[in-house]
Design brief:
Elements: H1 2-19, H2 28-36, H3 48-70, E1 80-86, E2 91-97, E3 103-107, H4 114-123, E4 127-132, H5 144-150, E5 155-159, E6 168-170, E7 175-178, E8 181-187, E9 196-200, E10 205-209, H6 227-238, E11 246-249, E12 259-260, H7 261-267, H8 275-283, H9 293-300
Parallel strand pairs: 3-4, 4-5, 5-6, 10-11
Antiparallel strand pairs: 1-2, 2-3, 7-8, 8-9, 9-10, 11-12
Helix pairs in contact: 1-2, 4-5, 6-8
């Protein structure tokens, strides 16, 4: 009964806004006040000053709405950015695109999410140029191979050090071009030998894979992992970026989506330590054996398709 009364109250308030003459709706705050129940004096139609300004106020309100919607296109409204989550492995995938040329890339796709990713790419009118992996993953199977089936113009990318199959092998210093944009490839081994970080200098972003996470980092106790190598990679290749650069990880298990170079240099509980302390921390994490590793590693060595022919 309480719920029905509350619903009826909200509906009545909305009808009040809908039925209010436009000339009386002076601003967005006025609309909010009507819904919240605050009283407003009624403006007389004789108020010529308000009549003259109403057109400009209408434009201002519409402009606020337009600005809010345009924010989804990204900073400067000239690029496409989507951060997507796989709830099973807590993996983040990233779609980056040029809305003018329509060329796009996807970073770290997950095989179970291929239908979703392909649908978003098509919905946005993009053409997928590359499916890029930051490394050979152990906790999920990459969606690169399946995306290539659905979007035939797409090519797969991975580090040449990984020894995994892909159409394009990447090395430190390479550029990944899409439309008018490009990412710089930085080799950041330690979690695995083939870990890469992709830096979008124009937009102040870096996609760090498992090298650095929000207040954490990738484990180093399997798959060619080495804690000292990881420490050097992060400090030389990621912490050397400008402090305001945003860092987008391949995973997060606490609901966080992004961090910055400044935050991690100051607040990361592992990577703010000395190299010796970091090594000791990593050697004593006592993490469980990855559940998907026996399935994921063989598949990811062949672009996510175990029957893929070389």
């Amino acid at each position: 009964m309480a719920f029905l009364l509350q619903t009826r109250y909200v509906v009545n308030k909305l009808f009040k806004v809908i039925n209010e003459p436009y000339s009386n709706l002076r601003s967005i705050s006025h609309v909010q006040d009507l819904v919240s129940g605050k009283k407003h004096e009624t403006w007389s139609k004789k108020n010529q000053c308000w009549q003259r300004s109403s057109v400009f106020e209408r434009k201002r309100i519409c402009s606020c709405i337009r600005r809010t919607m345009s924010d989804f296109a990204g900073k400067d409204q000239n690029f496409v950015f989507r951060q997507l989550l796989d709830y099973k492995s807590f993996t983040y995938s990233y779609i980056l695109g040029d809305p003018v040329t329509k060329e796009a890339i996807i970073i770290d796709p997950v095989i179970e999410m291929v239908e979703r990713d392909a649908r978003i790419i098509k919905d946005l009118g993009l053409e997928l140029k590359y499916a890029v992996n930051t490394h050979v993953h152990a906790d999920h199977v990459t969606g690169s191979g399946e995306l290539k089936k659905k979007l035939p113009k797409c090519e797969s990318m991975i580090s040449n050090v990984s020894n995994a199959k892909a159409d394009v092998k990447l090395s430190d210093g390479d550029k990944i071009d899409f439309g008018s944009f490009n990412l710089e490839v930085r080799s950041t081994p330690g979690h695995t030998n083939g870990c890469l970080t992709f830096v979008w200098h124009d937009k102040g972003m870096a996609f760090t894979g498992d090298a650095i996470l929000v207040r954490g980092c990738g484990r180093t106790d399997f798959q060619e992992g080495n804690s000292e190598t990881l420490y050097e990679s992060v400090h030389k290749k990621i912490f050397s970026l400008p402090s305001n650069f945003r860092l987008f990880p391949a995973h997060d298990y606490t609901g966080q989506t992004v961090t910055t170079v400044a935050e991690e240099k100051t607040l990361n509980p592992r990577l703010t330590k000395s190299k010796t302390e970091f090594k000791n921390i990593m050697e004593n994490l006592n993490l469980p054996y990855p559940k998907q590793i026996d399935k994921a590693l063989p598949a990811n060595m062949v672009c996510g398709l175990q029957d893929l022919q070389s």
